[in-house]
């Protein structure tokens, strides 16, 4: 089947690679224009563009798809020439107007990383982890004018592990979803797939801001753990120590088997939400329930480091006696 692929970030690369390796013909790629990234703010192509150019595939980079604009009209003319039978989409990042949706025979087919109608929207993987879901998956569906509301073509399931970060889960879903997208193209071509309407209650995963990633230490330990994993690696869960913003890696809620021992230690059993306890080997922080053990921490202007190393430096530099928690050092 003759297709045009639309996608931009790294998770879309896996799907494009699998489509290139499939019997389907990837005639062109639509992706976002080159953008400035990194400290030097140098211009870089999107990961999808870089892969397409490596394979000699034509790349289209319109700034907008709206009709009546130079970019939008040029894209319509080029797509009319290519005449794709389907346009698979993975995290493209641009609004597809209604007139374009009917251009390919089989429409625009989106790969979404949830089991729709659960977690429609921009950040389904993060939302599923933060909510404590035990199961998620990927869905291919035909794009319509709603927000991830189109008819479902195919799905796969994926368990969410207790230690999964958003990056861990998204990586697995990207590979499994890429294979699902190829199978969906196969089924559309041979007529074995029958689109089905979405069934069930919808939930929504809004785009995540940096403010959303701030840690609420009054939440239970399990919720703090999920929040941090859901925002790892980006935008990165963070907290304040005084006026300094610290980014945290995944934490470990103290296992129930340790809780009885901890209650015998007055400093640990009395930890208030956000209060930090530094010992020689570890750093504990109070939550709305039981403490959590920090794993890695990134102070301003520095790289991620082991929390125990950071804690020893804090104890050494501070005029407060953080060792043993006798004076309050508190995240907020």
UniProtKB/TrEMBL annotation:
CDD domains: FMT_core_Met-tRNA-FMT_N, Met_tRNA_FMT_C. Keywords: Protein biosynthesis, Transferase. Residues 1-184 form the Formyl transferase N-terminal domain. Pfam families: Formyl_trans_C (PF02911), Formyl_trans_N (PF00551). It comes from the Bacteria. InterPro entries: Fmt (IPR005794), Formyl_trans_C (IPR005793), Formyl_transf_N (IPR002376), Formyl_transf_N_sf (IPR036477), Formyl_transferase-like_C_sf (IPR011034), Met-tRNA-FMT_C (IPR044135), Met-tRNA-FMT_N (IPR041711). Its EC number is 2.1.2.9. Attaches a formyl group to the free amino group of methionyl-tRNA(fMet). The formyl group appears to play a dual role in the initiator identity of N-formylmethionyl-tRNA by promoting its recognition by IF2 and preventing the misappropriation of this tRNA by the elongation apparatus. PANTHER family: METHIONYL-TRNA FORMYLTRANSFERASE, METHIONYL-TRNA FORMYLTRANSFERASE, MITOCHONDRIAL. Belongs to the Fmt family. This is Methionyl-tRNA formyltransferase. It comes from Corynebacterium hesseae.
């Amino acid at each position: 089947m003759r297709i045009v692929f639309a996608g931009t970030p790294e998770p879309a690369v896996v799907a494009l690679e699998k489509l290139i390796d499939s019997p389907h013909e990837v005639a062109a790629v639509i992706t976002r224009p080159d953008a400035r990234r990194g400290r030097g703010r140098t211009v870089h192509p999107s990961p999808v563009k870089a892969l397409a150019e490596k394979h000699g595939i034509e790349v289209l980079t319109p700034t907008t798809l709206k009709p009546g604009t130079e970019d939008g009209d040029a894209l319509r003319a080029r797509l009319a020439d290519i005449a794709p039978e389907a346009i698979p989409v993975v995290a493209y990042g641009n609004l597809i107007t209604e007139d374009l949706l009917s251009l390919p025979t089989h429409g625009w087919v989106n790969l979404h990383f949830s089991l729709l109608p659960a977690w429609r929207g921009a950040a389904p993987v993060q939302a599923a982890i933060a909510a404590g879901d035990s199961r998620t998956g990927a869905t291919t569906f035909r794009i319509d004018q709603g927000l991830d509301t189109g008819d479902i073509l195919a799905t796969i399931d994926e368990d969410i592990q207790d230690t999964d970060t958003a990056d861990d889960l998204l990586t697995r879903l990207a590979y499994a979803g890429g294979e699902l997208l190829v199978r969906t193209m196969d089924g559309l071509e041979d007529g074995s797939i029958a689109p089905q309407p979405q069934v069930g209650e919808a939930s929504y995963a809004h785009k995540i801001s940096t403010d959303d990633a701030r840690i609420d230490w009054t939440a239970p330990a399990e919720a703090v753990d999920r929040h941090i994993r859901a925002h790892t690696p980006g935008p990165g869960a963070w907290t304040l120590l005084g006026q300094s913003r610290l980014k945290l890696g995944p934490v470990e809620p103290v296992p129930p088997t340790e809780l009885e021992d901890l209650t015998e230690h007055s400093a640990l059993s009395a930890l208030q939400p956000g209060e930090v306890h530094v010992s020689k080997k570890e750093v504990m922080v109070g939550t709305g329930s039981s403490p959590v053990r920090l794993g890695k921490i990134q102070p301003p202007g520095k790289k991620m480091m082991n929390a125990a190393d950071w804690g020893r430096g804090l104890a050494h530099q501070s005029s407060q006696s953080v060792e043993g928690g006798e004076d309050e050092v508190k995240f907020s």
